Amino acid sequence: MQIVKPAEQVDMARNKRLLNRYRFIEYETLRILAAWLPATARMETKLAMGRFLWEEAQHVQHLYQRLREVQTPAFRPPDDPALETLMAEAINAPDERSLLAGLFRVIKPALRDAYRWHSGQTFANPDAPTLYALKHILLDEDEHVAWAEAEFARQPQGDWERYIAALLAHCGGVTGDETRSEQPAQPAARIPFRAPMTAARDKRFTILEQHWGDAAARQPTDEAARRLDEFENYSQEMLAAETVALIIYLSPAMPWDFVYDSARHCYDETRHCLLGIEWLRQHELDYTSVPQNTRIYAWRSQYDPATQYCLLTRGNEAHAFPHRRRSLLQYEAAGDQLSAQYVSYDMADERQHVAFGTKWLPQLMAQNNIDMPVEQFIEDTVDLWRREYLSRELPLHSEREAAS
Ligand SMILES: [Fe+2]
Ligand SMILES: [Fe+2]
User: Fold this and answer.
1) Together in a domain, 222 and 130
2) From ligand 1's centre to the CA of 356, what distance in Å?
3) What is the pLDDT at residue 400?
4) Distance between the two ends of the chain, CA-based, in angstroms?
5) Which ligand neighbours the alpha carbon of 272 most closely?
6) Closest listed ligand to the CA of 355
7) What value, to the nearest 5°, has the Cα angle with vertex 78 and ends 76 and 79?
8) Whole-prediction pTM value?
9) pLDDT tens for each residue of 382-395
10) Please, which residues bridge with residue 207 across strands?
11) Domain that holds residue 319
12) CATH code of 243's domain
């Protein structure tokens, strides 16, 4: 009887172990990007992070779809405390540039190399679904690594990046199979992460620390002013992305499908923000001259994640359609195809967001120990939205307490 010794180094048991490690790293990266989105100041970086976190969600989805075919439950911890330490520590960066250098200049290149190696070492035909997943994930990872190389070309490796590299070495690299080094000491620069209750903006922007309200309340005087108001408003939709990002971070026990939908929701809002920025640029207007009303984020952040989600999806998003439909008619009548297209795509996204709200509120309420009928909760929260947002008051409870 002839026995053929396979040349492949990744057998099925090793495959599962590795896929669990990759899934864990991708998922934690998504969570860290969400956590840091409001805390990151530079607008261009925020826009990039919105896309990255959605692409990480695609990677988790690819890996999840393969993992559920080979193990139950599909989501499992990596069973390696050193790897868990790496991803638990990666969030405690001193600043946004260090954070992204740690994730994109240390962890990601190692992950990309592991995916390449793995692709050459698994049983090609029997494990073809894994190869398909890795091939598509690699398209993004190559782009992410190239982004970081360009973005941080002039930034020397700092203490934080060295620390992340040492933690990666301590867990035997992405695969866990390399020689493990000693656990490094925490650097002095480390700052324990805390959920951001305010939204950061870079110095180019002025901050509108005042009450805002909706478009009807602002009452632009004519159609040109109304159109400008609409796209200036789009250029502030980072605020919605930041709220969704915070909800993702504050809801680690929600099911994967929720995180997947919310990553898309968050990415969409960064795209709506970019759509406003691009519209202003196309009209030779400076988007940085539009004051950013970060008070909206600070106001929403005071509430539990279920209330924040309800304020956004059932307050703002569900109530935006009459205004948008009127805009669409106005732009079409004026032959303004650019504005009409932008609003049409926005409305398609927003219909999804309202549907996400309907789908996930019951579970998010349960997670936050809110025990009442869902319809009652929505009614109460929309009332709250009317009182505090539509009224243009956006009360901050800390200010109220300080005053009393
Ligand atoms: Fe939006
Ligand atoms: Fe939305």
Assistant:
1) no
2) 13
3) 74
4) 88
5) 1
6) 2
7) 105
8) 0.96
9) 999 999 999 888 99
10) 292
11) 215-403
12) 1.20.1260.10
